[in-house]
Amino acid sequence: MSLPLVSIVIPSYKASHFEQCLRSAIGQTYPNTEILVSDNCPTEEIRDICARFPGVIYQRSSVIKTDNILGALYSAKGVYVKPLFDDDLLHPFCVERMVAAFSGRDDVSMVFAASQVIDAGNLRTETRRPYEASGQMRGADLHRNMTLGMRNFVGEFTGIMFRRSTLWQIGWQRLFHVGSHDCTIGLADIAAYFNFAAHGAVFYVDEELSYFRRDATLQSNSNYNANPNLGYCFSDYIDLLWASHEIGMISTEELLATQEQVHAVFLSLQGVFEQIGRSYERYQAYIQRLQG
């Protein structure tokens, strides 16, 4: 029986760690992959690196940031899509293990795994292991637990794999939306996880299969000085509460029970990120409409 094709998709902009990233994709033990690089680097450095590796599918992208990510994801041809960002790394067994998690589980729409944070020199700095055993959970439970807990235990896009058919069912216009709230410039990854999970179950692999890089010298979305929209990565946690209620994912009682927690977040971050005040206002207005 032939193995399903997996598309390893690399939306790229930063060249500093790109060759390591690409080599980690090429070095997968799983034999049936396509590697697609969507390059928005202002120089030709990424193009030149790709040219040294036959078989890499290279496309020069004229769009930036989220649009480049969407263009790359929707260019995939595989049964499964494995995102990989341009400074992150995959364990050699990553694709193999994730495909195995899909095998025989037709209801699973997304797989994620334990991961490790690394620094500029590839030194390990933080282990992410949300559960102590591999297993399956309902997509609704993932959505509810992350929303009510105001946390992301899945991690970054590099840590997941999903079905291409699910991606197309959602559509690029809705991938980063939850209810009427647009997370495109904030928690776009979490919104995508919720949308994938809405189409079935999710499976967690309790193995360290990816490496997320934090390098303060790079123009990364996780760096405060390089990302003017970083505040949305905090304020969206507040907006996701009412947006999840809007689509029936959490109850009115559960939403109302978050008021003390949300107020504490507002007091803690209102002087740090201007977006917090606006999201808190939306949250309060939504609750007032429920109660009034």
Polypeptide structure, described:
With 292 residues, this protein is α/β, with parallel strands linked by helices. The chain has 2 domains: 6-213, Spore Coat Polysaccharide Biosynthesis Protein SpsA, Chain A (Alpha-Beta Complex); 224-291, no CATH class. It is 38% helix and 22% strand. The chain contains 11 helices and 12 strands. It has helices spanning 18-26, 45-51, 65-73, 94-102, 139-149, 164-170, 188-197, 232-246, 252-256, 259-269, 274-291, and strands spanning 6-12, 33-39, 57-60, 80-83, 89-90, 108-118, 124-128, 135-138, 160-163, 177-178, 181-182, 201-213. The strands form 2 sheets. Strands 1, 2, 3, 4, 5, 6, 7, 8, 9 and 12 form a 10-stranded mixed beta sheet that branches. A two-stranded antiparallel sheet has the order 10-11. The mean pLDDT is 93.
Number of strands: 12
Low-confidence stretches: none
H/E element sequence: EHEHEHEEHEEEHEHEEHEHHHH
| Helical content band | 25-40%
Shape: globular
Determine the strand fraction and express it as a percent band.
15-25%
Mean pLDDT, nearest integer? 93
Number of helices: 11
**Radius of gyration from the CA trace?**
19 Å
| Tally of discrete structural domains | 2
Q: Quote the distance from N terminus to C terminus.
A: 60 Å
Largest sheet: 10 strands, mixed
Indicate the CATH topology of the largest domain.
Answer: Spore Coat Polysaccharide Biosynthesis Protein SpsA, Chain A
Superfamily (CATH H level) name of the largest domain: Spore Coat Polysaccharide Biosynthesis Protein SpsA, Chain A
- Per CATH, the architecture of the largest domain is Alpha-Beta Complex
GO molecular function: transferase activity
Keywords: Transferase
Protein name: Glycosyltransferase
Pfam family, one: Glycos_transf_2
